[in-house]
Structure formats: structure tokens, C-alpha cells
Amino acid sequence: MRTTTLGTHGPQVGVIGLGAMGMSFMYDMATPRDDATSVSVIHQALDLGVTLIDTADVYGPHTNEELVGRALAGRRDRAVLATKVGRVVVDPTGGQDNLPVIASDGRPEHVRASIDASLRRLGTDYVDLYQLHRVDPAVPIEESWGAMAEAVAAGKARHLGLSEVTVEEIRRAQAVHPVTTVQSEFSLWTRDVQAEVLPYCERHGIGFLPFSPLGRGFLAGRFASFGELPHNDHRRRLPRFQQDNLRANLDIATGVRVVADRIGATPAQVALAWLLAQGPHVVPIPGTKTPRYLADNAAAADVRLSPSDLAELDAIPAPVGARY
Ligand SMILES: NC(=O)c1ccc[n+]([C@@H]2O[C@H](COP(=O)([O-])OP(=O)(O)OC[C@H]3O[C@@H](n4cnc5c(N)ncnc54)[C@H](OP(=O)(O)O)[C@@H]3O)[C@@H](O)[C@H]2O)c1
């Protein structure tokens, strides 16, 4: 796998990473988890050079970090391990479709207590990347970020990252401690970051980690109707996945498939290759718990899109429905 560096001073990673969330959380919650397969997917990832493994303490909650920790036992030094702090489950089943209700908690005392708990679950004494999952509107970013910088000073985290932030928030954080990465939703159907955040990151030597790079599976051609979504699944409450919107958005998935068929790639690979073409600082973190999808996604690192392929993908229209 080709590699790149996260930020100016960050670690080297394969240009495609792995998001572990869906192995434990948010998607298809009614189906029993197959942790053994998920662990083997993480092992497969490391073998293929997919070294950046992304989790968060809120995923599960907690069980996703435990799963990643089990998978990395004896392999810790082969992974670039990223976790997050700042989101908490306030009601495990009280949301729509019996899904968890989640809130932000960026208080310094919460951050200080959380890093040790994450390290225990992950079975390691440091994480490579510690990310603020969301800026807590009730806490100045300098306070949350300052507490995270204490984790770096204590050797518990090597680098710090932000998630879903504005340029102004990045600037405020940088004044306290270097920002190594920004993780935000970015894909062929969520391109807001192209206006300001993505170019800012490139100019300032900050790595950019697109989350939900496959449009939560939609761009890979997984869902053609609302009824195909599993029960107890986060996508069931997102506006773009509601039946009428989903139907209107099928042209987007078709546009990706047309390019994929022409160049002999899969739609998922085209969606990821389009992201890689947005700059050397972009490292998508597609989520999967399925061995053949992992192999598919890893091979996207070698898919080259021509200028006319890129122009055709750039011309895909914006989706119907908000992302949240
Ligand atoms: N910072 C944040 O606030 C935030 C928010 C959301 C996500 N994230 C991170 O981003 C990661 C990825 O995002 P995501 O999981 O929401 O969305 P995603 O990567 O866009 O899509 C995941 C979905 O696509 C399917 N899939 C994956 N590869 C495929 C392939 N090659 N062909 C067909 N289907 C494929 C997966 O199926 P299976 O699971 O069935 O294999 C899953 O249903 C998460 O794991 C998490 O680490 C961060």
C-alpha cells in the first residue's frame, strides 16, 4: 500500500485507513455482532498496509475500543491507532429506532479521566492519534484541547486531532497545541469541506481523514430502497436515506457505478480514489466488518482516475436531504 504522512510531523500511514465503528455500533444493531470476523478484518487490514485504525470511546459505548484492543494484541506496533474523546451515550436505546442518544462532553475533567480508560480498553500505553470527537458547545475548545495536550505531555497520546470543526476552531486549537489531523464527513455526496477546511488543512500541513467516505455504504451501491436498511440502524434516521430522498439520490450511486464499470473497478474503489485525488494529505477511513470489502477498499489505493473520470465524478449533483 502507498503511504503518506499524517500532518507535517505525524506518523506514516497507508493511504487507506479502516474505521472500526460499524463493527460494534450504529449500524445493523439488531444482528448479533461477529467479533471474530471483525478481529480478522483488522488483522487483514494490517497485512495489506491499512495501518490507520480509527475507533472512539463512545462506539459501543466502549466495546469498540475493547474489540480493537483485542485485535491489536501482539500487533500494536504495526498499527497507527486513533481514538476519540468528547462524546458520551446518555441513553443507550432512547433514540429513534431504539438507537443510542449521544451528547458532547468536552469538559477537561472528562477528557483527563477518559484517556486512561481508553488506554485500558485498547490494551496499550499510548495512542498515536487522540481526537476531539466534537467541540462541546458548552466548553471553550481551548479547555478540551488543553486537557488533550496534557495526555501528549504525559506520553499517553503522540498526536492530536479534531473532528467536524470549522477553520476558526482549528486556528484556536493550533494556538494551544499542534493539530495533526482533522476528521470530517467527506465523500462524493458530502463535499462541504472543499470550500474552506480541506484547503486550510493542506496549506497548514494537517492531515485530513474523510469519515463515512462511502456515504455510509450508499456510494458503494449497497442500498436502493429504505426497506433494504437493516433494523436498528443509524441510517434509518438520516434524511438522505428516507425513501423519497433515497430514490432521488440513486442517480448519484449510478454515476459512481458508470465510472467504475468503465475502468474495471468497484463503486467503492471509485468513491475512495476520488477522495485520494483531492490531495496527498487525504486519508479516507472506510468502515467495514466484511473481509471482501476490506480487500476491495485497500485496492482503491492503486485505482487511478483520469482527468475526465474526475470531471465526470465532480459533476455528480448534490444529494437530496441533509446529512443529519
Ligand atoms: N468523527 C465522526 O464523527 C465519525 C462519524 C461517522 C464515522 N466515523 C468514522 O468513519 C468510519 C467510516 O464511516 P462509516 O462506517 O460511517 O461509513 P462508510 O465507510 O462510508 O460506509 C460503511 C458502510 O459501507 C459498507 N462498505 C464498506 N466497504 C464496502 C465495499 N467495498 N463495498 C460495499 N459496501 C461497503 C459497510 O458494510 P459492512 O459494515 O457491512 O462491511 C458499511 O455498511 C467509521 O467506522 C468511523 O471510524 C467518524
Automatic annotation (TrEMBL):
<dbReference type="InterPro" id="IPR036812">
    <property type="entry name" value="NAD(P)_OxRdtase_dom_sf"/>
</dbReference>
<dbReference type="Pfam" id="PF00248">
    <property type="entry name" value="Aldo_ket_red"/>
</dbReference>
<protein>
    <submittedName>
        <fullName>Oxidoreductase</fullName>
    </submittedName>
</protein>
<keyword id="KW-0560">Oxidoreductase</keyword>
<dbReference type="InterPro" id="IPR050791">
    <property type="entry name" value="Aldo-Keto_reductase"/>
</dbReference>
<feature type="domain" description="NADP-dependent oxidoreductase">
    <location>
        <begin position="16"/>
        <end position="316"/>
    </location>
</feature>
<dbReference type="InterPro" id="IPR023210">
    <property type="entry name" value="NADP_OxRdtase_dom"/>
</dbReference>
